[in-house]
Hints:
Shape: globular
Strand content: 25-35%
Number of domains: 1
Largest sheet: 3 strands, antiparallel
Number of strands: 8
Structural class: alpha+beta
Number of helices: 3
Amino acid sequence: MLIEIVRVPNGPAPEEIRKEWVGVQMSAEPIPASAMEADFTINRPIGNRGGFMVRTEVALEALGKKSEEAANWFNQNIPSGMPWLSFGPNEVEIVP
Length: 96
């Protein structure tokens, strides 16, 4: 499915970086109920918000088209091998 980020996502990135997600569209999947989201900066579980997950490389490519600076921040701060980024259900809209 295709989602669009419509609200500044929660997360460990600085707010000015997170604001750049608004308006970005990308392919996503619902987060399985059994999955656990984590704060990647401190590797701490944060629960499951019931939102959407996007392959990291897909998310950063989409973000980079809007803001190279924001994509660079994530590339420098996400642990290598992190397969997914997650977005809360109140942060996105499904694009028909």
